[in-house]
Write a structure and sequence with these properties.
heterodimer, A: 328 residues, alpha+beta, Fumarate Reductase Iron-sulfur Protein, Chain B, domain 2, B: 294 residues, alpha/beta, Glutathione S-transferase Yfyf (Class Pi), Chain A, domain 2, four-stranded parallel beta sheet, 8 strands
Chain lengths: 328, 294
Amino acid sequence: MESRKYTLRIQRNQKQDDGSIASEWQEFTVEGGETTTILTLLESVKGYQDGSLTFRQSCRSAICGSCAMRIGDRTRLACKTHIGSVVDENGLVSISPQRNQPVLKDLAIDIDPFFKKIKEIKPYLLDGPESDTQVGASAYDQVNNVTQCIMCGSCYSDCTMSEVSENYLGPAALAKAFRFVSDPREGKKTERLKSLSEDHGMWSCVRCVQCVATCPKDVKPMEAIVKLRTRGIEKGFIDGVGQRHAMAFHNDITNTGDLNEFTLLSRSVGIFGSIAELGVAFHLMKKGKIPSPFPHKAEGIQEVRAMYKDLEENPLDVETKAAEVEPE
Amino acid sequence: MSLEFAYYPGCAAKQVQKEAASSAEAVAKILGITLKPMPRATCCGAVSLRESKPAFSLAVAARILTEAEAMGHDLCTICNTCLQTLNYANYRFKHEPEILEQINGVLKKAGVRPYEATIKVHHLLWVVTEQVDPQVLQSKVKKPLNGMNVAPFYGCHSQRPGEIFEARKGENVDQLDQLIRAIGGNSVQYDGKDKCCGFHVMLSDKNEMRTMVGQNCLDAKDSGAEMMISPCTLCDMAMGAYQGPAEKVMGKSIDLPEMNFAQLLGIALGVDDATLGMARLHVDPVPALKKRNI
């Protein structure tokens, strides 16, 4: 493997006496091949250039989840990331701590907020009336992806909702919750869906898919969140803005074909919610942005109604099933 | 190469964001792209329908895709969420033949032509930057941006998950950057360019949504942006129309003109203001344009 020089632009963070964090970028020149890992290069910086550089690491095998940090444009495991795959045309990559949790020093963060949310969803099987003693072969179809989670926090770090909400459960905790909801042995599936339907739970995901793109273990948290929502609606937990909004779509599509944006607001947030939104409504009206109450009607709408009726009478299971995972 | 597409503007572009549709149609005409209407097409259902009625959402998507297929064209849209929803379904139809067969069974019973899974789903932005000859685009520019600093705001649903977007060239999502440079602007690099506009939680998590809008806009502005463009009618609604409400949550003025990519492209190609719906923008772009003598 041909060796060359690379530049690691590392964010150095130091806690001050007043508790604030002083931050500055420092560049280190390192040598390695295209497939040398970021972790190996960080170790060489710590060993030969600056012993005070602080970062977490342990297994070097993408199993322990300790070395998740922002590398380039997203959060990655330093032990799994090849330098050649993340540098710019000048051979430089920026490295900073995970986002959305407090920084302790340099690249190390306080992981308590992340684990607090994991604990909040009760990450263990609960005894209860819905517990099944038979576990069929197909049971693994749904828990397969989510059981690969190594709790590295990468998804939480890149989650666009966690960035603006301290209370949102976040992708990893919701994926873990889905793992229990879809486990036949779980005794309180319905109770779990009820509490996950509350504020800052599964309906607060913005569906940005960042967690799916970021996850180093292919957990696909957002896919799990979408499936949680379907199960929540099926169990009748539909008394929230997110749920009512989602429910509005099939009514409109079978009615005229297009979304009726005029009545969508009152159907999602209710009449009192709509009054609270009046300020925004006036703001939108100034630019003619209040939609027509009579959307365009698609040709052949009776076909859509027939499809809907057919599927209500003869439900089809179209959920994605996880394939067997091959060892990496 | 013939650039003819079945045109699927999406619900927002037919209603609240109709300026995006009139601009897209105008620029397409100038660039030799034919957009043919799809009279049978319904709303795509977005992720919402996937959540509430998973099987019906695939049937709705298949009915839209088969209309384009019957017209003999790939489909082209101007909404990121429609783009992702239709690509997601198309990806499943092409990779899970048993799902396609089951859904086609539903279509047939309802009297709809079965979908053969032969077409691709494009974004007009990708067509403009990847299929239109760059020299043709250059030759049509009447009012170049004169170095204006424009922030590209990509929106989630044209980027992720990467594997479903069959019609996009390569992994790199840089089409807005390319377009900005092609019409004489300078594309601003900022942290928020691939983040979320918050549209889908506009009603359920109001403050969070407005904070997303505010942070992304301020981030772009702090990086020198004089203007922001997006390829998505829903991002336009959030980053443009909701900038006012976002200012209240952030407690400071933002004042960053935001418009659809087709509107800014339309300005560069000399399309008139009425067609581009300039009067419907919440933050007046005129001062920023005047500053650059446009």
